Amino acid sequence: MFEYCIEGTTGSARAGTLSLPHGQVKTPAFMPVGTHAVVRGLSATDVRRTGAQIILGNTYHLHLRPGERVIQELGGLHRFTTWNGPILTDSGGFQVFSLEGLRRIEEQGVEFQSHIDGTLRMLTPERAVDIQWQLGADVAMAFDHVVPGQSTFSLASEGMERTLRWLDRCKQRHTELMEEAAGSPRQTIWPIIQGGIHDELRMRSLEGTLERGPWTGVAIGGLSVGESKPVMHRIIELLTPRLPSRVPRYLMGVGFPPDLLEGIARGIDLFDCVAATRNGRHGTAWLFSGRLNVRGAALKNSSAPLDSTCDCETCTTYSRAYLRHLFVVEDILGLRLVSIHNIRFLVRLAEQARAHILDGTFDGWSREWLGRYYAGGD
Fold it and tell me: What is the pLDDT of residues 255-266, one digit of tens each?
C-alpha cells in the first residue's frame, strides 16, 4: 500500500503505478477537482467514464458544508459521493492564499471568516489532519502557507518556514491517528514544498521537507498563483531532480493542457486543476489545435463532432451545432457536456504521454503536440 513503482522513463518524464487503498493510479495522471465533494455538474459515473482514476476534494470547503462529521457518519467521502476510486484531499492551505480578505494568520493556525454565514473557523495543522482523517481520503495533504506568486523573499520565507513548522505538527497528529486506529494503514500524508519564486527558499523547503520524511509522495505547491510560466518551469526543474525517485511528484493546482506536458517532461507525475470544468461551464473546449469557443457563430451549422479524435460521450454523440445551441439557450446540459470533454481531454493527454514514455518517443511527440497546440493560437 502507498507504493510507487516506476515502469519507464524518457529523460525526466516518468511512467509509473501508485497503489492506494481504493485502487491504483497509472501515472502521469490528471486529477479532476471535486472541491465540494462533486466535480462541478458531473456525477461520479460521468467522471469514471472520462477515465479519471483519482479525484480531489477540499478540506476547508467540506468542513463548512456539510461538515466532516456528517460525511464520516455517512461512510466517508467514497460512500458519500459514490466514487469508489482513490481520493486526495487538499488541506485548506490554498484558501490561505485565495481567501486573503477573509482570514487571519497566526502561528497556531489560520482563522477564517466563513463566506457562507460569517462565522469564524480556526484551521490548525492538527485540525486539518483530523478533518481529512474523518473524510476518509486515501491521501491527505499537510497544511501549508501559500503566498502569491510574486511575493518578496521575506514574505515567501515566512510562508515557507511556517509550512515546515506546521509540517511537524501535521506529521505528529497523523501518526497519532494511525496509532489510535491500530489497523492496516488507510491513509497517507504528503508534504508540500513552498518558497515562492525564490530558488534559495525552494531548496531550503525541499531539504527541510526531506529531513522530516520518509514520505510516500511529495507535492510542489505555490505555483500557478501569479508567476510566469518560465518561472514555474524553472522551479520544477530545480526541484524534481533532487526529489526521491521512488515517490510520486504532485504539482498542485496546475492543469491547462500545455502545463501537463511541460510538467511531465520535467518529472511531474500528478496534476490537478479546476480549469477543465470551469472552462467547460463557460463554453471553452480544449482541442489538440487549441481552444474553441463553443458559443461561436461559426458552429451554428456544423454537424462535425467537437473533436473527431476524442472518444468521450460528448464527441461521440453530439454535433458542434447542438452544443452551441445548448449554450445559446442556456441549458445546463451544454455545461456538462463540454466539461466532460475537457476532463477527458486532459486524462487522455496524460494517457498518451504515458504510452509515449513507455515506448521511448515522448520527447518528439510532446514537442510536436505543443507546437501544434500553440500554433492554434493558445
Answer: 999 999 999 999
